[in-house]
Amino acid sequence: MSYSRQSMGSGSSSARGYEFGRTYVVRPKGKHQATIVWLHGLGDNGSSSSQLLESLPLPNIKWICPTAPSRPVSLLGGFPCTAWFDVGEISEDLHDDIEGLDASAAHIANLLSTEPTDVKVGIGGFSMGAAIALYSTTCYALGRYGNGLPYTINLRATVGLSGWLPGWRSLRSKIESSNEAARRAASIPVILAHGTSDDVVPYRFGETSAQALAMAGFRQVMFKQYEGLGHYTVPKEMNEVVHWLASRLGLEGSR
């Protein structure tokens, strides 16, 4: 495989002292035009993400694949596994772990902070990884984390597969209270994809998340429905992501 293991950011701690795991990097095979942090799902790690992404025909993208901290997860009855934040049962009344969300969003921002200024940066992820990617996108629009500290990364694209948007209920009022937030929300392209047969994060959460973003003024949201798809990715879906990223980021060789 042509990806290399690096310990960028490895060992940095969140507010509660959870250690982030190893970060894997897939280097661009062509001219480096974009860098995307890709975030794995609950219980997974950056290595499996890097192997999936390494196979994609996007030679101008550098992929950074961090590993979440291992922490007790409420959904699993307190059993510890890799998780970007604590999460209970996925429902309309889901309580958002703002402290955990902020710590992971800051870790991701730190990974992107040293990229060259002429390189476009984005975030993507699957399931819980999609949730933290979308949360980071709302931090970008608002210009701050949930705790009020400034968010300084200039995101250019977001990909969310089989996930949900934390804080979706209050997003619109927050964005509408700031002209600058509304401008940033309108400027960032977002693609969401979800399978109709997802039994882990039900399809309606993907649909609701896309609607909440659009209602809050994110004008470049694309929502892709995959009939019969469960809680996993398929080549057709990844091909759509490839074409979307190539076109939205203006990568060489894209049509």
Automatic annotation (TrEMBL):
Q: Which InterPro entries match?
A: AB_hydrolase_fold, PLipase/COase/thioEstase
Every copy of the Phospholipase/carboxylesterase/thioesterase domain together lies at 24-246
A molecular function (GO) term:
hydrolase activity
State one Pfam family annotation.
Abhydrolase_2
What is the name of the protein in this document?
Phospholipase/carboxylesterase/thioesterase domain-containing protein
